[in-house]
Write a structure and sequence with these properties.
alpha+beta; 65% helix
Length: 66
Amino acid sequence: MPKLLIVAGVVLILVGLAWLVGERLGLGRLPGDIVIERENFRLYIPVATSILVSVLLSLALWLFNR
């Protein structure tokens, strides 16, 4: 159990760092991301960002499994 918690912690740290780097590179504000803003309401649907992340992860996993 301790090893699992350590691995989970490392994964969360890596995801957090990737999130910070992605924001600086413009991920989350791509053309194709849907933002609906009203007075007390904001809806954000990251369509283009999700597709880009999916393609990059698929490519990385494909290269890793080769």
